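re: ur question from earlier - yeah i can do the single chain one, its not a big deal. heres the input i used so u can compare w yours
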Amino acid sequence: MDQPTFDKLVVDVTKRFSTPEALLAEQDLSREQKLALLRQWEYDLHLLQVATEENMTGDAPPGTNAEKLRAVHAAAEKLGAKLDPEASGAAKTGAVIKEAS
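and the output i got, formated as tokens:
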């Protein structure tokens, strides 16, 4: 996928992909682009979890963000990325998805 199109997509991954599996199936994306999108999706889900902890819940049923986060991590592992849950840090928005192992 060309860079301008990718730059628009990374702003809101969920506008184009309903699941991480759908993202993995996209043939127009390189492996690196898929990992970048999964990292962005992970970051967005962490922010939603923080908002939930602060009683700023949206319309999603409880547990939905955690389930999607697990699916994002599973998709990243399918691409060969290493997950490091201990590296997320105290800010609650640190990345668990690392480079390929």
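The beta strands are 81-83, 97-100. not sure if urs matches, ping me
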